[in-house]
Batch of 3 targets.
Target 1
Amino acid sequence: MNTNKPLERVVISGGGTGGHIHPALAIADEIKRRHPQCDIQFVGAKGRMEMEKVPQAGYPITGLWITGIDRNWRSLRNWLFPLKLIHSLIQARRLVRKWNPEIAIGVGGFASGPLLQVASRRRIPTVIQEQNSFPGITNRILAKKVDRICAGFPGLDRWFPADRIIETGNPLRSHVAALASDIPPEVVHDARHHFGFEGTRPLVFVMGGSLGALSMNEAVQHLCDQHPDGLPFDVLWQCGGRYESRCQAWLKDQTSKASLQVRCFGFIDRVDWAYAAADVIASRAGAMSIAELSLVGKPTILVPSPHVAEDHQTRNALSLSERGGAILLKDQQVVLGLGDALKSLLGDPETCAQMAYAIQQAARPDAASHVVDVVESLIQL
């Protein structure tokens, strides 16, 4: 979209998981591409993943003292929540007054609430980007206050005002979006070498989301236990930061040949290299994973988390499996069933090719551009 008014000051708030952080960075990158002079300030929650990942991506971030509400009402965190909320609103008011942004963008997570609440009261244009088919509580609260809602999935008018929703898809950073085109063999080779794999054996990428998934970690361990003389494929394993020390220790203690075919990481920053290296991918069904996997176009096994609101990861997974683009494997089946599903795919190139084509039909490579179009349209009003 062409705009006569350049963006100069933008604030982006939210985080908590990679599913919020990655689209926020993709939006920031697209703003910088169009408006190199723009000053982009991030706001996150102290102690959360964004306080590390955003500076690594080259953007400044300020942390608010804010957390969510614990389901256990006796939790100390719940008793502190009103104090943290008031403190965060005061801090957000100071930040907005200091930065005087032209527009405020929220991507979900605890920090989005105070910042966008303050911005909307000051009549600063506001946008939220909702990644999931079932919105998070922060975005549901903000929905009636903001000017536009950029939706990653259709059907969000159940929770949001329909006249403010624009279906954009979920924004992806450029190095991931680039995977929408064919991946040259030399890139595949370099990606595998980056993770310590040599040769031409099939490679499976197992990822349980940015925080990890216990069931999927147990599935990888079960695979190794079932094949002490060696797996029929190599495994790139993102186990999640909270499980990293435990999984690394387990792998180090193994003496089987299978354990030598596994590379374990808590979190993989350059997930595009992992996608490029893989022949088959087994993943949780978070909204951003769905967006990325659709672009990548590799045979995929989706394992929805059972611990999310209204089982929205199953809805996400069905959006691909019903069109033949993925295999849906229930969480309670993954430990015993992952090995059979992987062998079935790796032994059937024709089905793999059909799945790859089907999953790519859901791709939205221009989502970040569409979100920034919405941002630019608001500052022209």
Target 2
Amino acid sequence: MPSVLIVDDLLSIHEMLDAVIQPTGFATAFATDGEKALARYKAEKFDLVLADIDMKPMDGITLLKQLKLYDPTAVVIIMTAYASTESAIQALKFGAFDYLQKPFRVDELIATLKRGLELRLFATTNRAPGPAKAQPAADATSRLVGDSPPNRKLVQQVKKLAAARNPVLLQGEPGSGKSTVAEILHAAGESPTSPFVRIDCALSTEPDLRTGLLGQGGAGGEWVKQAKGGTLLLQHIQALALPLQAELVSVLRNTAHSFRLVCTTNVDLEKLVEEGGFSDELFYRIAALPVLLPPLRERAADIPQLVQFFSARTANPFFDTSSVEFTADALAVLGAYHWPGNLTELHQVVSKIAASSDARVITSQQLPMRVHELKDWPTLSDYLAGQQKQYTDRVLRACHNDKAAAAKVLAVDVGKLG
């Protein structure tokens, strides 16, 4: 029988909740403050915790934080008597599953407990090792290419997220790989045939978003229903109009337990919340597990591996592109470029060259002009102005102190002077 620990300093609340909850199939236990509740949770372990926010000496928010530190899968529902949602939103910020405002309806309470139990069962059953966990880990390692510290950190984050059902917010510049991470997380689902519903909020019209996302009565529209048992990906979540954001909160309260929710954005969403341009409650519901994807310019050391990865997956009518080789001078130029389009831009550049080249060896002269024309890349005007040493030093820095690569760049550039 599923169990719920009820935490409130009023015994009358204990009696009322016990009379309401027990007949629905939950075993109930009680604590009168946060300290006693934490000790009892550690000793007995409960499926759910239903805690009042206003208690002494340990209040509900502090209890929530302590429970999450002890057991990240703890499902905590906060009860609040305040008229505003400020305290409730604070609870969401620290990982509460949901909140209930007193006085609440019995049907609302039971529905929230049942949703919380579904999440708890998913979290606990998916922590056990087995074949279902090997694939996401391998997928993360094979698709998130690179050994740079920023990418290694990202791979570890994704592996951890694969075992969680909480909403994930992927933040990063355009082209930084947010869709790839979402696909990896989806692959962590229990079934490889589970639905993957991808919605671009920036490209969808408001009527379509209302029909597809919101539906009637907070039950969710067709897109939400299609995602049941799988993943709902909302790209460019910041593009949702504020009225739609408020209505989406209601939908997620009723449905988010039935699918994995992944949202993406290329803006600082927390700053947008502070400026009043994004719903704070929606933010804390979707940002339970935020991930910041590093831009490619911060992981230039990964470019040689990425070039090989992209070229090997490109079709060429003359030869197998897995044998294509980019020379040291070509890689040096690619490594020094700032890549405003990140991985997407690098993929386009590499695949176009690998697909159209009639030779297996790619030099810097075959790269697009724009990757040579860097603000920070040394120019031959420095050399012609008699600043040969300064030019040589800047080339070396641009090549990340790879002397062999720098020598080849210098040979090519100086050779142009004939």
Target 3
Amino acid sequence: MKDAILLVTGISGAGKTEVMKALEDIGFFCIDNLPPSLLKDLVKLPEFSEDAEQRVAIAMDMRSQSMFLELFTAIDSLQGSGNKNVILFMDCADDVLVRRYSETRRRHPMRESLNIYESIATERAALSEVRERANLILDTSHMKSHELKERLGQLILHRDIELDMVLEVMSFGFKNGVPLDADFVFDVRFLANPHYDPALRPQTGLDAPVADYVFAQPEAVQLLDSIASLMERWIPMHAKAGKARLTIGIGCTGGQHRSVAIAKSLADRLDQKFNFVSEVHRDIRPIGSAHN
């Protein structure tokens, strides 16, 4: 979808707001509730983005019947722009729409009719041509939020977005407190401590001699393998549940040697499978008298 706009429209109550949130999570620049008459001015927007891979999604809601003609005109300009733009039509079963409006107590935008069923039918008929012209149709009748994001990844990005979970592997020292934002915490203080080697004490787990010292212990290698296997198995489950970010804490006493070496190696392992992995070493600082 490079140099293209994703136009999101469809039946009121079908979940356009949730779709825009999900698209934002998977990297789209999103514009919500754009008046159709302004679409022609935004067709060239992707060309002006500093990020060559930036994707743009625009949602259009029908606030009144007078906007339907504008929507058709906007779609004509979108399809005639020369870019490979995509129209995503959101749909939903009538009984589910009625329940959603009942639960939220919101008024249907088609205000000419007092009956919710008639309002839905009127809008559905008015949007039938738009639906026929759509590239993609997404029925949200029985779809949960996390399933919606997964389905959008398949429809639009043509890949498994579970691999797009943003992962942060953080080393830290327990003496400075456990990171409050850590989703998983692993304690590596049982490993032999490089601090007690005078030659290694001034260094950190980012230095090869310290890393070699740590991983000369069979337990360290086994620990790394165990944590990596655990994360590779359960990170996709968190992604399926709708979580977009995960922090993995690796702790030793001071956050200088053991936790740093393990965290760096773990980040390297996870980076081979997942798309967005970073490492943070919270407590690395000049070594004083504290153990790590």
